[in-house]
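Predicting holo structure, 2-acetamido-2-deoxy-beta-D-glucopyranose bound.
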Amino acid sequence: MELLPLWLCLGFHFLTVEWRHRSGMVTAASQGGCELLDGVADCRGRNLASVPSDLPPSSRTLLLDANPLRTLGNNSLQRYPFLESLSLHDCYLERIGHVAFQEQARLRSLALPDNALSESYKETAAALHGLRGLRMLDLSGNSLTEDMAALMLQNLSSLESVSLARNIIMRLDESVFEGLGHLRELDLQRNYIFEIEGGAFDGLTQLRHLNLAYNNLPCLVDFSLTQLRSLNVSYNVLEWFLASGGEAAFELETLDLSHNQLLFFPLLPQCSKLHTLLLRDNNMGFYRDLYNTSSPQEMVAQFLLVDGNVTNITTVNLWEEFASSDLSSLRFLDMSQNQFQYLPDGFLKKMPSLSHLNLKQNCLVTLHIREHEPPGALVELDLSQNQLSELHLAPGLPGCLRSLQSFNLSSNQLLGVPAGLFANARNLATVDMSHNQISLCPLPASLDPGGTPGCVDFRNVASLQSLSLEDCGLEALQDCSFQGTALTHLDLSGNWGVLNGSIAPLWDVAPTLQVLSLRNVGLTSSFTELDFSAFENLRSLDLSGNALTSFPRFGGSLALQTLDLRRNLLTALPQRAVSEQLAGSLRTIYLSQNPYDCCGVEDWGALQRLHIVADLAMVTCNLSSKVIRLTELPAGVPQFHTGYVCALPLVTSLELVRKGRDSVLPCSKNTSKSSNLVLWMERVSVLRVPQG
Ligand SMILES: *[C@@H]1O[C@H](CO)[C@@H](O)[C@H](O)[C@H]1NC(C)=O
Ligand SMILES: *[C@@H]1O[C@H](CO)[C@@H](O)[C@H](O)[C@H]1NC(C)=O
Ligand SMILES: *[C@@H]1O[C@H](CO)[C@@H](O)[C@H](O)[C@H]1NC(C)=O
Ligand SMILES: *[C@@H]1O[C@H](CO)[C@@H](O)[C@H](O)[C@H]1NC(C)=O
Ligand SMILES: *[C@@H]1O[C@H](CO)[C@@H](O)[C@H](O)[C@H]1NC(C)=O
Ligand SMILES: *[C@@H]1O[C@H](CO)[C@@H](O)[C@H](O)[C@H]1NC(C)=O
Ligand SMILES: *[C@@H]1O[C@H](CO)[C@@H](O)[C@H](O)[C@H]1NC(C)=O
Ligand SMILES: *[C@@H]1O[C@H](CO)[C@@H](O)[C@H](O)[C@H]1NC(C)=O
Ligand SMILES: *[C@@H]1O[C@H](CO)[C@@H](O)[C@H](O)[C@H]1NC(C)=O
Ligand SMILES: *[C@@H]1O[C@H](CO)[C@@H](O)[C@H](O)[C@H]1NC(C)=O
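Done. Tokens:
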């Protein structure tokens, strides 16, 4: 108790300071240490066991989250008749007195997430029934069953938004949401719902947003919530989705069916405003082979519907159903992580507004590019991680893919692309062709053009900015492969020998390149032209996994911020080179996994002080048969001369300091002092002198 006044005092002091910064607003502290500001009483996390009784009676918002209240008594809110918003998140609430909200006629928003309201739900339900003006009610995380939820929501007809997320609801029937005629938003995610009876949502004529993610629904048939704008049924076990037939106009804009077990493309309303359809991670495919028919028109699926004691077999002609669904507004379609082996002819033609199509991680083998298919509005196309060995381009299609900006063909089995594909795509900025075995145009004159598959031509694709060709098995580049582009990002990693002794093939893009990755390409320092001085906008350069024995040249005025030199054959630390060439700009350098000679690390301290070595702890040097971490060298080393370093690992810094500068010896054998060094080291311990 003695501490309280002081604490309050501090609290008040803080608040007055606060007040000065937000002039015009009234702040004060209350008994419970709540912060008061402009009608808001913020009592979160104050270890309160009851609602403070000395808050301004005019308070409109009361935040009591994270206090161990356990019970909200009948009278605890009596003094605050003007409350519009009350938040009791995580208050261990088990009971709410049945007249607790008697005075709260103005309450609009009530948040009760993460409590234990199932404990005495009947009393709580009675308390809620007094709230005739309530618009927002959050009951998530309260272990409520459907019956408890139904009781609590009964007659709360003013509600516009309800969350019942993270409860233990299993079934929904028409009684649960009865009379909630103004409800616009309903969150039921993370329950155990496996069944929704017909009519469960019938009374919810204003419902716009319904979230059923993370439940156990096996199918949605006869979906007929025409007024709904967004429906989220992701992370269930849906095997099929079937909208009710007929020509009713649906308002549906966003449908998330991702992470289910759908076998067929969903059968969508015939008239809707759908712009986002998310189908990621299902088991969907088209089944031409299964039906042994060349025409999709003949594909039929039969669904067994069991409803009580009535069993119905519904026959659906998949293609007709698909063909009759309205996809004219669709802009975003995610079909990634499915089993699509092909797309039927005309499939994409139904989506003239499509701008983003994701087909990543399917089983596509070929793709035909025809007129309006994919549609001209397409901006982003991801075909990565398929088995594409062929792209077909219908002849005479000058404007195809005219809006395309990003094209991902990574990890397929392509040997090339149709001539002119990229040249036609006038807005193409990003191409990822990594992990395909291709060659770039022009091919060396020596190669017989007849015998090899066509080369991929990026020349004069003026819009191209980012190109990934990692691991494409590229042959040595000719000098003008990137001529006429203004590449800012280029990845040539993993193509061993792609720069055959010279970085000349990159001259064309040297002025524009900002990010260049040359990992594992077989660069050696004998490259006469390993000089990046002309790359004046280069910000990031990855040279790891090569055979560099010396630091590349950069010239003076570089923008380089990140440099990766790991896994090379550097024997000397590049301190001087770094500070001379890259002073100012360089922020991160990776240096580990090089066989630095411990006798050549004199610049280590200076380099360390620049605070730019990102893998500091991993940098080692090579001392005869030993590998030593540079960070394990005793502190103070940098103040001494080189020679010490060779002896350091086995002496303490104390000894070093005592010995002082005079006894510092260079380690190279060819200096006059080398014999002294050997003597000295023999005295300290056993340490072999490195071969100089
Ligand atoms: C609220 O008052 C009623 C009697 O009016 C009583 O039965 C109930 O236990 C009280 N609840 C709480 C939480 O105090
Ligand atoms: C709900 O409203 C109906 C009719 O308006 C009424 O008969 C019923 O008693 C009310 N239930 C509660 C719990 O207030
Ligand atoms: C659907 O709900 C899940 C789970 O809350 C969420 O991750 C996902 O983003 C939602 N989908 C949309 C389209 O908002
Ligand atoms: C598929 O159809 C062709 C002719 O249309 C027929 O020869 C073949 O046996 C059929 N295969 C199967 C598995 O039914
Ligand atoms: C099916 O169930 C309904 C009521 O649920 C019952 O009236 C009817 O007799 C049942 N029919 C059969 C064939 O069992
Ligand atoms: C069974 O099918 C008939 C005709 O298609 C339909 O009228 C009836 O409502 C269906 N019954 C169920 C349980 O789906
Ligand atoms: C292309 O797809 C691959 C694999 O799906 C991904 O790793 C890569 O980041 C994508 N490329 C671009 C440029 O987005
Ligand atoms: C690689 O460089 C050498 C020497 O400059 C040259 O003789 C050879 O033709 C080049 N190879 C290719 C494939 O360009
Ligand atoms: C020291 O570096 C050389 C390469 O220069 C390497 O062959 C040798 O294995 C390294 N020594 C140790 C102990 O790793
Ligand atoms: C001796 O060291 C100097 C540099 O300190 C070097 O230039 C010279 O080549 C070395 N001589 C021998 C024989 O190693």
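DSSP finds eleven helices and 37 strands in the chain.
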